[in-house]
Amino acid sequence: MKALDELTFDNRFARLGDAFSPHVLPEPLDEPRLVVASKAAMALLDLDPAVAETSVFAELFGGHKLWAEAEPRAMVYSGHQFGGYTPQLGDGRGLLLGEVYNEAGKHWDLHLKGAGMTPYSRMGDGRAVLRSSIREFLASEALHALGIPTSRALCVIGSSTPVWREKQERGAMVLRLAHSHIRFGHFEYFYYTKKPEQQAELAEHVLNLHYPECREQPEPYLAMFREIVERNAEMIAKWQAYGFCHGVMNTDNMSILGITFDFGPFAFLDDFDAHFICNHSDHEGRYSFSNQVPIGQWNLSALAQALTPFISVDALKEALGLYLPLYQAHYLDLMRRRLGLTTAEDADQQLVERLLKLMQNSGVDYTLFLRHLGDEPAALAVARLRDDFVDLAGFDAWAEQYKARVARDGDYTQEQRRERMHAVNPLYILRNYLAQNAIAAAESGDYSEVRRLHDVLTRPFEEQAGMEQYAQRPPDWGKHLEISCSS
Ligand code: AMP
Ligand code: MG
Prior knowledge:
The chain is an alpha+beta fold. The chain is 40% helix and 11% strand. The protein is globular and about 65 Å long. Adenosine monophosphate binds at residues 89-93, 120-121, 124-127, 248, 253, 262, 264, 485.
């Protein structure tokens, strides 16, 4: 276990030079204090969890202090936002402090979000508010616990620094960890600004550091793009299977590693709703829940365009063609497991679709339905869950089909079925209203609720004594909270 001053840096991205990321120093927050830290994320850096409580920790991640070997930089990138190309974005309020490698030899980017103005701040103030920092922290750690690929979060540091949004709020910083912060938009930036040499340097960098196994392939860049397609298909299948809505799937928010990245107005579904739009500013529903699937492919096409200097158009198209079938295979596999099935039948897709339609029409809680489906033998479980549906005849027909399917599936005890189903069906998810309660308490200086909620969400599949209130449907006030991009 390491102390804070024992981290080992190796700033590989910084070595690409100023054209990729100019040097910028963090602007400290006033009166920095620890709001919450993730012990599991600290372990990724081999950090002793006790250091989170020290004042140096809040000073380091509140922008007051820096390691001598850190090299804080703002990355430049661009991207397609809501379908339109923005020629220059970049880290407007976050800094890559440096790359740390742990004892297992894994590199982690330390990215400090909310660290002040940079050359890419445009009209912004370079800050992040406490509310959005807590949301990013909780979401990163909750998605990870569900097995969904994501950036991680080490901590949130709060402060007394005033920050203006619709009203006055307080500034905060979240320390984000990822193996890389390179986005689709990095490639788009060098492609559209016609800087082929730098674009080639970037491509080499990503290939060497993040997809070294693709080097062995006859066409390494094509192999790398295929791998990116595959990872995105799998990530989005997991979002859809667990009811996660990202909200701002612009290409500058898409990671080259296929991890969930840049949390804004995200939400987990409460009631199942395929048309759900979690981003209050998304008037057209471009990033609605069900649109995430085709948008994933749209974003990969935007990346493919930027890779045309390295890969033939025909090969790119062929690789893009892998996305939908891979997505469907991953999604169906997960949904079968969520339904407790161990074998595959052709009609399973239809079984899933019919259930979702019934849930949609009756406003059934997506997470709790699937959790409770495993509580008891299939016949008993569906009989208990029936009351949640308005279309009883429709549900009964589905239930008959499901019971018959379970009977054909295999010979196992209810004990085995429950264990298997509960291992993939969470009892606790990050519902917007739960985050909201934790934020309200934190804004008045009480961080205990954020910490408790974080703790519950790190073991989402395990029933936790005394935590029943985290496994409930939202109260009326918490059903349709408006979350915008202003963070
Ligand atoms: P986001 O919606 O957080 O993905 O941000 C989109 C772009 O706006 C990125 O280039 C951000 O760095 C920038 N940005 C967002 N909020 C701010 C802010 N408060 N100050 C400066 N830049 C910001
Ligand atoms: Mg972003």
